[in-house]
Amino acid sequence: MKTIIKLSFMVMIAIIAFTSCKKDQRALDTSVAPVTALSLPADQASLTLQPATGNSIVFQWTPSTTQDLVLYEVAFDKPGGDFSKPVYKVLSDGAGIQPQATITQKVLNTIASLAGIASSSTGSLKWAVIVSKVTNNKVSTASHIIQLTRPAGFAVLPASLYLTGTATEQGTDVTKAIAFKKISDGVFELYTSLQAGSYTLVDKNSGTPTMYSIQNNANVVLNGSTTVSGNKNVYRISIDLNSAAATITQIVSVGFWSAPDGKIWFTLPYIGNSQWEMDNYPLIIPHESYGNDSRYKYQFTVINSAGTQSVEWYGSVNSDNQDPSSSTPLSYYYMYPVDNSQFNYCFKIDPSDNNKNVNVNVNYSPALSNYTNSITAK
After folding, report:
1. Of 195, 192, 118, whose CA–CA distance to 154 is shortest?
2. Which sequence spans correspond to the domains of the chain?
3. Model-level pTM?
């Protein structure tokens, strides 16, 4: 009898526990309260963007009254937009849980560009806050307008840049377009020849590239082409898309300059593909009272876009060097801008090349990590 009573009591406890558990189960609450007030930047605030150096901008708002954890995004739209398809969204600080977002001026410049605000001009953006919980989200009941003044230059910088067109060494086949050397983000350089015709800059050599052109030998703009007239010449084309600037410098000549003689022995013909080369030159190292002196560097004669001629010097990173040999690392021959001193920052010739015919090559190919030169015995 005691066993039956005990068993009945346990069954009752189980039923009560099961019933209690069922009563404690609740449907997931996905409701979310929208943000109702924005604080910073103030409505109609004006910002002059300096993407490279300007401080980040803090966007702040009053938190949602939703009790559970929510995520915040700052949404940007054109002034007439309703945020159903925002131009851009930025997750708030703290992986989306803080009621503020710290946004760099570089990102704001990109957002302004996507909204159709041209470089070197001022336009308006509207911003609001989207608060979300699970699959439910609400746009803030308030929105602010900000006035953004963009600098010159492109907000979205390509990872690469190419040259193509009838004026170039590779013609109009974009798959054969000539790559620029990337110096830094948005900054590119190329040594190449141009002949009568036209050329375009593109950000890739396949598919549908973004096209740029150089106007007035100074400015880079979207689309279009650049016309070249006159004789074929060699140029250094320097592009800075951060400021939409271009610098076109004609390379008149590249001279092999002997330090002990204090003069140019010869000028190297341009052979294409960003290279100059003197073929089969009879090399004799000067003999001085202190012994053979093979120090040399290069003199570039250049003309800027205004037509002014000047001289640039390129040589070794070291002010003084030992004689090279067959085991000398290639970095010994890397080319760096140097001064016009007679004996400093010179390379030296491998003594084993004395009294031999040699090829002297200056290579400014964009694929190289460092521009270089070489002297090779025939």
Report:
1. 118
2. 38-149, 162-231+238-243, 251-377
3. 0.77
